[in-house]
Specification:
The protein is α/β, with parallel strands linked by helices. The chain contains six helices and five strands, in the order αβββαβααβαα. It has a five-stranded mixed β-sheet with strand order 3-2-1-4-5.
Length: 177
């Protein structure tokens, strides 16, 4: 009698895919319980240099009383024009079963193809979903500020010192608690 060990790459990929679908479906159900949600996206390039956009939904979870940001997948993009990206996002969200007219926010970096008021993703989405207000990603803004500030030697040295202190203190702090 043969026993299945579920170790073949095909079976493992199928199990991962099934888990992914189950988790994503659960997230979408939670999003639907909320009156509104926001959409966040950012570009990522994988090891094969394929352009992908990470897609995240932000919503208030009434049962837990917290705001959640949940990753719902990568969207492969062939072209990075605002219109192409917006169409791809909307198609992916629709395929996931997201109710688009409940979108009240959208957040991206400051690149023209994302934030442009005429041809950016936010402009295209605002035409289709007028209530979806664009906000420049605050984490991206902070990253830009730190990058520019690091050109100043005093700030660069201070950040190095903070990192060194953190590397020493964090393990000690974790052991204490």
């Amino acid at each position: 009698m043969l026993t299945q060990e579920y170790t073949s790459p095909e079976i493992q990929n199928e199990l991962i895919s099934l888990c992914c679908k189950q988790i994503t479906s659960s997230i979408i159900r939670d999003v639907h319980k909320s009156p509104y949600f926001g959409f966040i996206a950012d570009k990522a390039t994988d090891v094969s240099t394929m352009e992908q956009m990470a897609m995240v939904l932000r919503f208030f979870d009434k049962e837990k009383g917290v705001i959640r940001e949940e990753f719902v997948g990568f969207s492969e993009v062939k072209r990075t024009t605002g219109e192409e990206l917006a169409d791809t996002f909307l198609a992916n969200l629709t395929q996931l079963g997201v109710v688009l007219n409940k979108m009240r926010g959208q957040g991206y970096d400051g690149a023209a193809n994302m934030s442009g008021v005429r041809r950016g993703v936010q402009a295209k989405k605002s035409q289709i979903i007028p209530g979806a207000i664009y906000t420049h990603c605050k984490a991206h803004c902070l990253n830009l500020v730190i990058t520019h500030a690091c050109r100043i030697p005093l700030i660069r040295n201070m950040i190095d010192i903070v990192q060194q202190v953190a590397l020493i203190c964090i393990p000690v702090f974790r052991q204490t608690y």
